[in-house]
From TrEMBL:
The lineage of its organism: Bacteria, Bacillati, Cyanobacteriota, Cyanophyceae, Acaryochloridales. This is Uncharacterized protein. Keywords: Plasmid. It comes from the Bacteria. It comes from Acaryochloris marina (strain MBIC 11017).
Length: 128
């Protein structure tokens, strides 16, 4: 095993985002800041989902609950660091979105951080 293979890139990204959540939004998603209250962020437990009829379980990387600006209501940021290309990734993100919506019945803002090549952040456009 090489040194690069032993580095938990996803775990490092998650730790950085949990520590610097507002700075992450400032840098990569500044348009979202108009809609959020810069108060406490609640990071929810990692959700585990399994596909119907499949034995494979999937874990959502990071789920943050934030408050809408000036309101008593909340929405969720679902953030997935992705260090490599995976088949059916878009389908998996949509599946996560649907399951989270079913469980929490809150607006969801899915975000993917692609770490290779370079770093890019993509926010999905789903609606219910």
């Amino acid at each position: 095993m090489t040194q690069q293979e032993s580095i938990d890139h996803d775990g490092l990204f998650k730790e950085l985002i949990e520590t610097f959540f507002w700075e992450f939004l400032d840098l990569f998603l500044p348009q979202v800041l108009d809609y959020v209250e810069r108060g406490p962020v609640t990071f929810l437990y990692q959700e585990v989902f399994s596909s119907i009829g499949a034995e494979e379980k999937r874990i959502i990387d990071l789920l943050a609950q934030v408050q809408f600006r000036g309101q008593d209501s909340y929405f969720l940021f679902h953030i997935e660091p992705q260090s490599s290309v995976q088949a059916d990734f878009e389908k998996r993100m949509f599946y996560y979105f649907a399951r989270l919506h079913e469980k929490y019945d809150l607006p969801i803002y899915p975000v993917v951080i692609f770490g290779s090549p370079g770093i890019s952040v993509v926010a999905a456009r789903y609606s219910v």
